[in-house]
Amino acid sequence: MDLTLRVWRQAGPKAAGDFKTYHVEDVSRDASFLEMLDQVNEALNAQGEEPIAFDHDCREGICGMCGVMINGTPHGPQRGTATCQLHMRKFSDGDMITVEPWRAAAFPVLRDLVVDRSPFDRIIESGGYITAPTGSAPDANLIPVPKDAVDSAFDAAACIGCGACVAACPNSAANLFTAAKIAHLNLLPQGQAERWNRTVAMVETMEEWFGSCTNHGECETACPQEISIDFIAWMNADYVRAQFKNPSKTGRDNL
Amino acid sequence: MSYTISDSTMDDALDAKVPDGPIQEKWDNHRFSIRLVNPANKRKYKIIVIGTGLAGASAAATLGELGYEVQVFTYHDSARRAHSIAAQGGINAAKNYPNDGDSIFRLFYDTVKGGDFRSREANVYRLAQVSNEIIDQATAQGVPFARDYGGLLDNRSFGGAQVSRTFYARGQTGQQLLLGAYQALARQVGSGQVQLHNRIEMLDVVVKEGRAVGVVVRDLITGEITSHSAHAVVLATGGYTNVYFLSTNAMACNVTAAWRAHHKGAYFADPCFTQIHPTCIPASDEHQSKLTLMSESLRNDGRIWVPKDREDARAPNDIPEDDRDYYLERQYPAFGNLVPRDVAARAAMRVIDSERGIGPLENGVYLDFKNSIDRLGEGTIEERYGNLFEMYERITDEDPYSVPMRIYPAPHYTMGGVWVDYNLQTTIPGLYALGEANFSDHGANRLGASALMQGLADGYFVLPYTIGDYLADWLNTEPVPTDDPAFTRAEADIADRTKRFLDIGGTRSVDWFHRELGKIMIEQCGISRSREGLEKALGEIPALEQEFWNDLRVLGDDMSVNQSLERAGRVADFFELAQLMCRDALDREESCGGHFRIEHQTEEGEAKRDDENFSFVSAWEWSGEGEAQHLHKEALAFEYVKPTQRSYK
Fold it and tell me: What does the pLDDT look like over A23-47, one tens digit per residue?
């Protein structure tokens, strides 16, 4: 198929950017979206124009490195699918496709379609872990974990950290990302000791960087792992409870 | 020992430092005999870790917890992106929770046998010993392993084993284990104990007076080249499968860190030991950029077959049972669809070579779930493999619940890597290699669900002990300052090399050269190899390499994001590695594991080892630019698992 692309080009973090239009011919229906961009880049290189910079790595939808706005939608038209797993059969011959980087104040553009998502790491560093120094673990079967709990925890833990939720959100909120990690750890028995401190620390770090959630629900629709917005409600409930259950605040037990 | 090796061929200088004593006691004895660094002194040491996959993240987190000052570098935008994240099927451990006859010794035995008797027994035994602690550790971190209804951990079976010892987290075990290690690392970063540098690529190891003293790196955003010094350097930089261009590895996976270390004196071991994974989605066309793995765990419930008649053009569901050839079940009744990867891949290759391949390009075999869906219900299959089935459907536009998957063997993992001794130290004192970057545990073929085990064993439970023995010598010494000529020279070399790529001004892209190199490698040094083919490759690769240095086109500059420039350096190193792989494959006049020389096979087409002459690790020493590497041999002794012709019948 033949396509017309409008691609955001920006030489560096401080440079002004704009859209450039490229025509691309003979794209295979079986090519992935990123393979189509590879094809464009081959052609640009041959013409002496610098290739489009875009982040990508595993191309299996799991590393979370890729992600662009495709016609205004993070990761494009297919639900539950990262950009690298989107295939050109979802488009039609003659289509015009607009490709932009994630747009969020917390994710500044580094070049073309590449953005800096390091605030996500700051949120995890603030409490997105269970403190279990190497060597200190008890036998893995010592604590049974109800299957339902581990299944829900897994649904949240499946987050790939791509940033589509932030890009989709009109407020550039990172609540789905943060809630997914909080739910993963807070749902498990192993995560209880740090539950309230974790929740407060991660929510407050999130708010240093990102906008506030006003329940639009765009994040859930954009999420390539289809992580449920229910986890945000769950996080909010835990955040409220943390205010009076946190033993560091009340001096009482945390049950 | 059942045989002896003539001493004259072996290299006494290559000391693997395997401790004395019975194999069950070696690691315990060693931990007692090596020196420790006392807790108050640990903060006086700086350690650099390169890479944040399972091995790097687990090592960095653990070293930080112990109190060392750790600097970590990754070329990714976040430590969580490393390719360990894509591992699907599971992680082995000798827990024996299913009560089906497993033990540390059996895991050790299966791994040595699975590696076709080309790994170091003592390392493998230690790996089996610490495997159980890994499961405990990961569970404590909140890794959501699959559980049964009583809340206890579930296991599944994997290729090359007759017990169920594989722990798994749906089809995303690598993701969950990596997130566990990444979060442990994030805790150390948050506390300030570990400094993490993202989007920074290591381009050289700095060696002074014979020991590793630091690294030189390039910032992928600004292009700035800087030096960092430390008391020790740890490489956890993965494997080199991307030498084939099309592989299951992530696009950025490369050999550069290991190869730069090789240039500085680290021996490179068994480069020809590469793994072709039997279950990947077949390539569909020329523009394809990578191949996607379908986890080996699918072979638990999927049956592999092709039509008996090569002319059979019916749709798979229209072909009756009697007209199907379940060739693995037929040829290997004991292990059936769960034979090890090398055996399964070669069996698929034989079928495809005999023109019985299926699919539009006749390059696949069927992996069929109909029997399992009938027996267990679609819900159970979805619970076990749902994400893999979805991925398959997105890529192929076919529904594997109703139509058999098409699969094909593809490059996946490299058993070879930087040579290390029992302490995981390379031939450069102070330089360590962990995980897939080293060579030590998988011999000539890795069993499924053992890569995650090894990466985490090295990072959580081996290196943090063994590194102390080296560091003890350097107590109260400062790291070499980065204005030392050893650093400034390395920086200048990298700046020159970077500029050289930009100055060529040719006509071809980096990817074009990479793809062409990959074609030569998969053809001549892939699933089967021959003297004739390898010699041909050794003629073609240098010619293509020459063309690369004359006709490469890298646009842009070296002071901003330049992804072509990043790839140019990696592909340049792949050219050198590819030649060493071919030489190693040529030198190894036997077949073993993933290394299959067509001249050396049994009548049934199985790998035919030559234990008399090739029971050794080949360890290649860099001899300088334009010179052929020098071969050293580490003799392998098998005291506990007697080498036999591997049989999975």
Answer: 999 999 999 999 999 999 999 999 9
